Amino acid sequence: MADRKTTNKISRRSALGLMGAAGTAGFLAPNLLGKPAFGATPPDAPTGRIIVGLSQEPTNFNPLMVKIEVDDGVHFSMFDALFRVMPDGEIVPNLAVEVPSQANGGISEDGLEWRVKLRDDVTWHDGAPFTAEDVKFTLELIVNPEFRSWRTAGHTLVREITVVSPTEITWRMEEPFSPYLSFLTETFIVPKHVLEAEADPNTAAFNQAPIGTGAFKWGNRTAGDHISLTANPDYFGEGPYVEQLVFKYIPDVTVLYTQFKSGDVDLLGRMYITPDNYAEAVTLPNRVVKLEPASSVETIYLNLERPVFKELAVREAIYAAIDKELIIEALYYGLPEPVETFMPRTSAYVHTDLPRHEFNLDRARQLLDEAGWVPGADGIRAKDGVRLAFVNSTTSGNHLREQLQQFVQQSLREIGVEMTIENLPAAVIWGDFWTQSQFDSVVVGITYLIGPDPDVTNRFHSSAIIAQGGRGSNNSQYKNARVDELLEEGSSTFDTERRREIYMEVQELVRADLPFLPLFSDNSIRAWKTGIEGVEHNGNTRTETWNAAKWYWAT
């Protein structure tokens, strides 16, 4: 067995040509240009512009509707929530004046009664005042069955929303839901006076030219090219310090990096710098390059309603046939870390003792043999008239994911599994194809948590399957009654130790069931031009622009 495994690994390593491994020399070299300018202070008035380069195009501008990570860049810049989460996990006031708790009386001892006090100095981008009526409207719109909400978990428990005054709102929870405070850090408030007049909020003009309370206002959009935001001079918080924030869409990640090198892009957003360019990037003059632990997990995500994936033995065999170690080393230059869970490495709830993946083609074949999948004349296995064949998709133009696909495709062929590659543009793949579970399998990076809270009801509860009439992001259509039970208990208790036990068991069950095949968690290569100040990594959000209001050019 060992000889077979070694032989297989060497042949594929040779085929890759080691992916230019010599380029990894000195990849841990520090970039001394990352130091802030001495004595740098923000300007008195917004000035200049910052161009953020993205490899995926933001297309959903109503922050309450179905969206992906890249859309958050616009939402965090234009909208505010009741609270925000900081890099250290602390939840702080945003539109609210304080964070309610059981200690300060904002949340009752039983967790059911909530009282939130609001700022009185906030206006919408069109000049209308922000009030508690907007909060009530937002919370009710989210659970409107006719509205295509991104996330309803937690919100469906809210009852008896009462506007006490323009600056105070109360509600009752049908049952305790401990993650709700974290959920509210990503629940952006939308304007009642704009949206209530619309016959259908799903098709409102607001969705293509939104009005928020945030540091930046909508400017213009050229579809397929860029989105431009302008400074909000009436913003109640700190900043903004730049006059214009531009999101430039460059679908090919190699071209994106080239434009960063040439200076056409000031700061790299998703997908940041790819590992194959890291060694060069740290040597670039007048650039700040930093490694930051990513909260997302790169996976091969499976649609469990497809006949080929219904058997656990098949999922286990496919996982055993993937050489994660070599993929990380040869394709990603050793930068990511292999993982076995959806929980971020930096989370206090991460399970570090899950079964470790082992690349073993013989074991993969044995699993399929024992499950009755028999090779046909073409070498592809079949059972009960079903060929062991499926399609794998990812974002077109992401060359590393495309190489990963080819790698996996070759391995699976060796155990009698046919994987066809069909990639799609970002705007297509992350639309209904993804949200309505129209895929067979997808290579995707997912952030499973909302802020620092460990709850994953939105991702793994059987009620969160959109394709089956649910609300949420359980796109793999995963169902496990015990997981449902644990998630329901975990979200209803405020006992930290009990919650730790619960989410440890959830991780064990998900790892055993393999609704997705965990590959690795990135160390993201963030980069921007020297002279841009205020940039700060926040692993509790999904976007680099979570604090774009504080960015400025040092002079």
In words, what does this structure look like?
- There is one protein chain.
- By secondary structure, the protein is of the alpha+beta class.
- The protein has three domains: 127 residues, D-Maltodextrin-Binding Protein, domain 2; 96 residues, Dipeptide-binding Protein, domain 1, CATH 3.90.76.10; 221 residues, Dipeptide-binding Protein, domain 3.
- The chain has 16 helices and 23 strands.
- The protein has a six-stranded mixed β-sheet with strand order 13-20-12-19-17-18, with helices on one face.
- Helix 8 runs antiparallel to helix 10.
- The protein is globular, with a radius of gyration of 24 Å.
- The relative contact order is 0.17.
- The N terminus is likely disordered.
* Number of domains as seen in the coordinates: 3
The CATH topology of the largest domain is Dipeptide-binding Protein, domain 3
CATH homologous superfamily title of the largest domain: Dipeptide-binding Protein, Domain 3
- SSE-based structural type: alpha+beta
Task: Provide the CATH architecture of the largest domain.
Answer: Roll
If strands are numbered along the chain, what order do they take across the biggest sheet? 13-20-12-19-17-18
What is the beta-strand fraction?
15-25%
Mean pLDDT: 91
- List low-confidence stretches: 1-38
Largest sheet: 6 strands, mixed
CATH class of the largest domain: Alpha Beta
What does the radius of gyration come to?
Answer: 24 Å
The global form is globular
Distance between the termini: 63 Å
The share of residues in helices is 25-40%
